[in-house]
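User: Hello! I'm new to structural biology and keep hearing that structure can be predicted from sequence alone. Could you demonstrate with Ankyrin repeat domain-containing protein? Please show me the input and the output so I can see what each looks like.

Assistant: Of course. The first part below is the input, the amino acid sequence of Ankyrin repeat domain-containing protein. The second part is the output, the predicted structure written as tokens.
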Amino acid sequence: MNRVPFPHQAKAPRRMRLAPTTLLSVCLLALVAGCGAPPEPTVNLYRAVHIGDLDQIKRHLFWKTDINQPGADGAYPLHVAVSQGRVAIARELLDHGADTDVRDRLGRTPLHLALANGKLPAAELLWQHGTDDDPQALLFQLVADQTADRDSLHFLLSQGAALNTAGPSGTPPLHQAVSAGNVKLAKHLISAGAEVNLTDTAGNTPLALAERIPDPSTAGIMAGLLRQYGALQ
């Protein structure tokens, strides 16, 4: 019996295999093509920080703009960011090497400005990044400038500052607030633990200083506040 020859089967075409190194090169080229450099910034860095333009700021950071150079007003980008409470921008600047301890032309550090403007989250961010500010010195400065508030006082006290210590002029913080006639600040200080019967280096109590306030109305309100919290004549 003659067998019918089995039809010849065509071989399937071989799949082309790329060498591992070739495949890696192709992937890298695709990655580079999809991750090109951002456009150069079109807005001045200081303007970008002032208006909160994070995209422009990231462009500056990519193109290596010097972020530790002051602007025309003597303020640094980090000073501007924290004084406005722009935490995301401040974090970007800090992560790219912004100096936490640089001072503006008035001698203020970024932490000083953050606290003076009531931007506690920005102050906490700066502290986490290792600022060298002295909490006690900052407390005296903020009280002298009359920019301390309840939150800034609590922040500085939590970092080791003391309320019942005389400053460089020999005057404790509460005495400074009373002499300035700042009732609101005096109340914040008392609430935070300032001693109402403490004497300064000249022997004055806060109540004695309150009675010397030129404006009779303010003097009366201040004296009443101090007596309310136990001040003695």
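User: So the tokens describe the shape?

Assistant: Right, they're a compact way of writing down the 3D structure. Reading them back into a model, for example: The chain has 13 helices and no strands.
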